[in-house]
TrEMBL record:
PROSITE patterns: GNAT. It comes from the Bacteria. GO terms for molecular function: acyltransferase activity. The lineage of its organism: Bacteria, Pseudomonadati, Bacteroidota, Sphingobacteriia, Sphingobacteriales. It comes from Pedobacter punctiformis. Residues 1-136 form the N-acetyltransferase domain. This is GNAT family N-acetyltransferase. Gene3D superfamilies: 3.40.630.30. InterPro entries: Acyl_CoA_acyltransferase, GNAT_dom.
């Protein structure tokens, strides 16, 4: 059984740390904006298995730190979590959803219609590309 639920920010940290930055101190994965974000957890058989965090600026949303436990990857959970975020943003009438994608995960986002921009950068030894998905158009009056 798979469920996606809104969760407290602190619940994202363990999975972020284990999956994304296991070699860094635990506090490295805490974002200063975490308490302004909306966080979702995917529960597989009642076990927290994947997390993602969403941050809003007007009608534009950024998701950050999408991570699925290593042993549970390639089972469709990441896709379910991302689809949930996309649907959530559509309901909120977001106009755009974007992310700093790890270059090695770029094709994962392409499957959802995200387009790579020409903005690329390196941080903490990893290469990123900014990817974006156009959502609702702003209604003209
Ligand atoms: C990236 C991540 C969230 C994907 O989650 P997942 O549960 O493994 O992915 P899914 O099983 O839902 O995959 C859905 C589809 O995307 C593909 N896919 C998954 N990860 C991919 C990757 N890194 N690159 C290209 N394709 C990928 C799958 O093969 C699958 O394709 P299919 O629909 O044709 O079968 C997960 O692998 C992860 O946590 N990685 C480590 C952290 C990370 O890199 N996060 C992203 C930071 S930008």
């Amino acid at each position: 059984m798979v469920q996606v639920e809104q969760i407290f920010p602190s619940l994202t940290w363990r999975i972020r740390h284990e999956v994304m930055y296991p070699d860094r101190p635990f506090d490295f994965v805490k974002l200063k904006e975490d308490f302004e974000g909306i966080h979702f957890g995917l529960y597989a058989d009642h076990k927290l298995t994947g997390v993602v965090s969403l941050f809003q600026e007007g009608t534009i949303y950024q998701f950050r730190k999408l991570a699925v436990l290593t042993a549970a990857q390639k089972m469709g959970y990441g896709a379910q979590l991302l689809q949930y975020v996309i649907d959530f943003c559509k309901i909120q009438k977001a106009t755009k959803l974007w992310c700093n994608a790890r270059v090695n995960a770029k094709e994962f986002y392409v499957k959802f219609g995200f387009q790579a921009t020409d903005r690329i950068f390196s941080k903490d030894g990893l290469d990123f590309v900014i990817m974006e998905l156009a959502l609702n158009k702003i209604e003209e009056k």
